[in-house]
Amino acid sequence: MSVTQPQVLLVEDEPAQREVLAYNLESEGFAVRRAENGEEALLMVSEARPDLVILDWMMPLMSGIEVCRQLKTREDTREIPVIMLSARSEEVDTVRGLETGADDYVVKPYALRELMARVRNQLRRSRPAASGAELVFDDIRLDPERHRVNRADKELKLGPTEYRLLVTLLEKPGRVFSRDQLLDHVWGRDIYVDTRTVDVHIARLRKALTIHGGIDPIRTVRGAGYALG
User: Which of 4, 9, 126, 168 is 20 to 30 A from 25, comparing alpha carbons?
Assistant: First the structure.
């Protein structure tokens, strides 16, 4: 019943730097997708929303600053944490990067250990369960380290898929997830599963959450998907 891997989009136009950084991220347990320019990065974000973007400033076609600006002005992507990488070390450049919406700014050359610490820090905000933080919504409590779910102090028995669905919903209460987004988060991007499968497992999750009573906390948003609360 493990929590799904945090998804990191790495945007870096230098192949050697991109591969070294991707290798280290994967060694830390992150699932990494690679983009070599800003236009490709925006396309990849529209196809599958990452949990974190690591973004180089100086790139051909579109700068990292412009990519960050577009991500932070769109309602569906503004909450994605962005770590900006840049050889620009002047204070005015750091300020510009942060004012564009970047959540963190790392100057090249950087120590890999420091960058990994900053990645984990940002993911604690966007994917708290991945860092072991307890998730709570009303009377529902999920402990990812012990893989236990309680509602009104009564332990619930969930299958692995229902557990991962609940983690995804608990990490973003109120956010509406489409069936395709839930497929990406819970089953993974490389596995083909019919979207109707999501409905089946949502029904099972609802049954498990209400087995001891209480209202159904999962909201169906017609034509859009599902949300918690």
Answer: 168
